[in-house]
Description:
Number of helices: 11
Strand content: under 5%
Shape: globular
Largest sheet: none
Helix content: over 70%
Radius of gyration: 23 Å
Amino acid sequence: MESLTTRLLLTLWTIGVLAFLFAPILLVLVYAFNASNIQTWPISGLSLRWFASAFGNEEIRDALFLSVKAGLLATLIAVLLGSAAAFGVHRHSFFGREAVSFVLVLPIALPGIITGMALNSFAVFWGLGLGFWTIVVGHATFCIVIVYNNVLARLRRVPRSLEEASMDLGADGFRTFRRVTLPMISTALGAGALLAFALSFDEVIVTTFTAGARNTLPLWIFGAIRLGQKLPEVNVVVMFVMTLTFVPVLIAYRLMDRSGAMLK
Length: 264
């Protein structure tokens, strides 16, 4: 049984880790409301002036639209290919199945800079040209992993007897999938899609190597910080990016938590 001193030390350690992780984020959120354009502490006052300035910037709006569009398309590709791969690996036994599964999850294990440079070299070698679609393909490579893992984990928990019972009652394969299998994996599919979009939306490393002249929101933030200009607007945009990333992750967590309770 843990002593009082051990519990106290673990509590303090946990608080310290959380403070280390989230204190800089909270500081950025505070600076987004700073009345001054100079980032000093304590802040001189509170103001919403930088929100109007940021969202009145056409460059920021274009970058936001491009990031959302690329994220949605990458998520769509990931859902289609990732779920199909999960069904193929789970339902069929074939030579090299484990190798296929390893290759599918490999992009998420590789550093983003490696994936980005590899995709950049591939596009340049074949003369494809860098632009919007290379961003989509680049993001889809690691988004597929998220959907694949979620759907595969759910398929392993869904009893095949339900599908067999449906077919015994006269339903064909498509009807069984639509009425039995899809409802059982829908929360995992939705959670995977939300996580894939969140991961795609704030990915900057792969975008850097696959964007060409395209300026997505993470690239705009990176450029503005590097040049040291418009830092107050950067704080506002970072706050928006964190919110748009946090919400899908929270919803995905709730979906997985609810679906896990349903399958117990």
